[in-house]
Structure formats: structure tokens, C-alpha cells
Amino acid sequence: MKKLSLSLLLILFFISGYGFQVKKVEPQNWWAGMQDSILQVMIYGQDVASTKVTITTKDVSISKVVPMENPNYLFLYLNVANAAPEKFDIVLSSGKQKKTIPYELKARQESSRHRASFTSADVVYLLMPDRFANGDPSNDVVKGMLDTKSDRSNPHMRHGGDLKGITNRLDYIADLGATAIWLTPFNENNMPEGSYHGYAITDYYKADPRFGTNEEYAAMVKKAHETGLKVIMDMVFNHCGSEHFFFKDRPSHDWFNHPDSYVQTTFNTATQYDGHASDFDKKASDDGWFVQSMPDLNQRNPHLAKYLIQNSIWWIEYAGIDGIRQDTYPYADYDMMAKWCKAVTTEYPNFNIVGEVWYGSNIGTSFWQKDSKLAFPRNSNLPSVMDFPLFLEFSRSFGDSIDFQKIYELLGQDIVYANPLNVLTFLDNHDTSRFLKNAKDASDFDRFRLALTLLLTTRGIPQLYYGDEIGMFGDKKDGDGALRSDFPGGWPTDSQNAFTPGGRTAEQNKFFDLERKLLHFRKGNEAIAKGSLKHFAPNHGVYVYERKYGNRSVVVFLNGSGSKQVLNAANYREILPAEEAEDVLSGKKILLKDTIEIGEKDAYLFGF
């Protein structure tokens, strides 16, 4: 009986996987001819750290092999400086056991290094894949995932939107006049609940199967390019989801900040630029976690840093993306993120990256932009920042009454920015109340018209939020789900299809037509894309400014007051080259000779 039991145990031992196993190899492939000659290959699996590594190529050499504290991780560093595109094997061996891992260095497209990116000539259309359009109902629920529920009646659950749905609606976005799209993260979020938003990533190299596949994402990018749209990928380096294999089976103890117990961040990111800040406060902000389900990655670990840098470059090459939006930027390690920005822009000199730097102060915001005098001698190397100060001023200035004074003063402080043209401006996004908070706001079309005209004609890279073009509203106080409603017509069972003029109500078409008119006027307009900003102090509630580049100019009059205003044209003669001009918004001829009459809550937009 004892001999039989021993035999069974030995059989089970061999069946269970005697020796080492390989579960993951990341990145799955790489490209020849990259600027960085050292390629990191992470090998993850049972007891791989103790294996011997060889490769079957003479053009690539092993720089170093780094077994981690956790025997299930091995980091292989390869020198690919002289490598041409080729296929070879990475061979792991231990005793008599051997595992061959096929690997490929692909050929790069000739134009890859000098690809264009998004600029102030673009307008970005932000959408949430789960809430925009459902092109493939068969992937709404995927067996084997931790969250297998889809319920459109619940604002905090998955609703079924996906990459195919976005691909099917690219023509709609292009017709609207946007020139770039920003998707909130589509990477796998295999979390028990609340995974629809995408910010708790559990696999950095894989699309969430409920959104689609990597191949479908690449196909979407290709179709976007054919439609005239650029694609910005949302990345999250500060934290990952608690179901990520990094967290469940950590490579090393220092892979995460506060690895032994949950410690929440203080959210006090002013410590990053505060010259008087204590080390205690800096660490409490930088190293704390957002929430318990999102453990804080320690970017100071050099192997993790290299992993994240390569991940972003892999997606640029693999999918052909045109830009990156980096989430929760000031919560990550400053020096590592500066190194990341430098690595990406060294590989792609024209590439733009915008960081989410959520400050109410333009001083705090400007600290993070590349070449900021306020950060000197440090340099973030981050080309673009999100202009939350202007967003907040939009919220305050467009209340029950409209007052442009604070916006005028804030834009007058653009001297704090290294490059004010390259900041991302917006009225709202997926984390804030919509500009139209409620039905009352949505009924005030003139308020929206003034704000949108200002957003799309002042300096910066404007970002629009899906649904604003049809007057969708939502208030943060009602929860994030209220800000992220499904776009009507994105699901086959929807009773209304707001993607088409006939499917929209008269009021929705009013919003849509305004936005479309402004976007098509803006497209290709160098005065707005590259021009200087000259503005006049608000007078009787009227804000006037000019954008000028070369011999072309755009002049805007915005009357926020509740009554008609009569202005002395002589005060604005320096920006008015003619005594009459056609208003782009109304199509009417407006006299600009002696006096300029503008109605209550009205706007004029002139192109010269």
C-alpha cells in the first residue's frame, strides 16, 4: 500500500510539471534598427530563474541575465545593436529539461521613426470604449474572466462597447471634424468589478478581450489613419490592477511601493515642485496607492522602468499609434518618467505625450512641461500637459452669468509655460462633470456656443468629450457612471441613433451642427494651429482676441453679458483689417467700421 501511494505521488509530481515552465515572454517580439541597442526580455514561469540561457543567433549577444528574487522571473538583456531583422530562439535549459522560445526581430517601416504626432493643429475626441458603441455583442461576456456580467442599466458595470464599435464609427468622428481620438485604456482589466474604465490594468501587452484583440486594435488604428484620424493611447504607469501577475506573484519585494500593506496616497502632488516640502510628505504622496485595488508601482526599480519604457515603444511600433496620454502623471517617480519621455522622443523625435497633471494652478501645471524654467535644472521631458487650470476657470466663468475676466487673466499668465500652444485644453472629460451638468445647462445653448467657440479658437490642443456634440449632460456628484453614459445609437437595440442627422432630435442637431461648423473652420487653419494670441481686456462683458500666423488671422468677439453691447471699433482696429466681415457662425455680414453691435450671449468669428 505504501509502495502504491509513493508511485502515485511520483506520477502526480511529474504530471504537475516537474522542472521549470514558461508562462509569459514580454515583449513578444521586437524590431531591428531601434535607437536603444539593449532589449529587455522578461521571462515568467515556474522556476525559470535557475535556468541557463542561450540564443541561436550570432547577430544578437546576451548582455546580462538577471534572475529576480522570485524564482519565477528572469530578465534577459540582449544587445541588438548590430542585428538585422531575423528569427531566432531563446533556449532555456536546466539539467535534461530544455525549453525553446521562438523570437523575432521584425523589420521597421521606413517612416516609423519620423512618424507625425498630434499637435495644436488637431482636435482630440475623447471616448470610453465601453460606453461608445458595441460592434460585437459576442464579446460582452467572456468566460474565465473574473467579471462576467454586462448590465447597461448599472452605470458601474460593463455595457459592452468595444473596439469594433469604435472602428464602425470612425467616419462619424471624422465627419464631425475631430482629427484625433483618445481612448481610455483598452488593456486587459481582469478585475472582479468596476473594470469597464480600464485604469486597473492586468496585462500591459494585451487588449481586454471584452473590447477585442490586439489585432482589432491595430486594425482600428489603421482604419483611423485611412479616415484622417490620429490615435492617442492612454497609458497607466503609476499603478496596475491588483489581479496583475506582477502583484499576485511579485518579481521582487521592491516592485511595488508599500508592498506589505495598503497605504493610500495623500494626493498632495504639490510636493513634487514645492521647494520647501518635507521628504515625508513627498513619499506619502508619490508612494501611496490610489485605491486598494490599484497597487502603486515602484518605477525606481530599474527592471520595471525598462519594462514600462519598452511597453510603450512596443505599442507605438506594433499598432502605429500617434501619441500617448499618460494617466496620473505626478504620482509616479519624476526621474523615471523623465527618462521614459526622453526614451520615447529619442526613438520618435516628433512624438507627442500629454501628461495628466491635475492642478488648479498654472504654476504647478507648467512645472511638468518639457523645458520648464520653473523646474530647471531638472527637466521632465514631457512635451504636453493637461490644462486643468483653464478647465476650472471655464467651470467658474460660465455660471449663471458669464464673466471672461478670470479667463483673460489666466491666459495672460501663459509666460509660465515653456510652450503654451502644446497644452491640452478641455471643457470636460471622463473624470469631471460634463460642461453641461444637467438639463438646465443643456437648455442654455448660448452658454455652450460661447464656451465651445473659445475652446476651439484660443491657444492649445482642444479635447472634446464624446456626447458633448449632442448635448449630453452629467454631474460628478451623481457618480462617475453619470459622466459616462452610453452614446445613443451605439447598441443595436437602442431606440435612437444619434450617429445620424435623422436619428438626432432638433436640439441635438443644433449642438452637433455648431460643433461641426467650428471644427471644420478650425481644420487646416494655421492662424489657430500656430498663431500668436493677442487679446483685449473684457469690456462690458465682451472678450475680444486675435490669433495670427503670417498674413492670416482669426478674430473672435464673445459677449457674455445679458444685453446687447455696442463697441467702439477704433479700440480694436489693430486686429481688424477690414470694415466689414462675414461671421463664420451665422453667415451674416457684420459692420466693423465705427461701432460693432453684438447681441446678448452672442459670438462673432471672423477669418481674415
Number of domains: 3
> By helix and strand content, what is the structural category?
alpha/beta
Which fold does the CATH topology of the largest domain refer to? TIM Barrel
What CATH architecture of the largest domain do you see? Alpha-Beta Barrel
Number of helices: 17
Sequence of strands across the biggest β-sheet: 9-10-13-14-15-16-17-18
Instruction: Report the CATH C-level class of the largest domain.
Output: Alpha Beta
- Number of strand elements: 26
Brief rundown of the structure:
The chain is built from 17 helices and 26 strands.
How is the secondary structure organized here?
Elements: H1 2-15, E1 24-26, E2 30-31, E3 38-44, E4 52-55, E5 61-67, E6 73-79, E7 86-94, E8 97-106, E9 124-127, H2 129-132, H3 163-168, H4 170-176, E10 180-183, E11 187-188, E12 203-207, H5 214-227, E13 230-235, H6 245-248, H7 279-286, H8 302-319, E14 323-326, H9 334-347, E15 352-355, H10 362-366, E16 384-386, H11 388-397, H12 405-411, E17 423-426, H13 439-443, H14 445-457, E18 461-465, H15 480-483, H16 506-522, H17 526-530, E19 532-539, E20 542-549, E21 552-559, E22 565-568, E23 580-582, E24 589-591, E25 595-598, E26 603-607
Parallel strand pairs: 2-8, 9-10, 9-18, 10-13, 13-14, 14-15, 15-16, 16-17, 17-18
Antiparallel strand pairs: 1-3, 3-6, 4-7, 5-6, 7-8, 11-12, 19-20, 20-21, 21-26, 22-25, 23-24
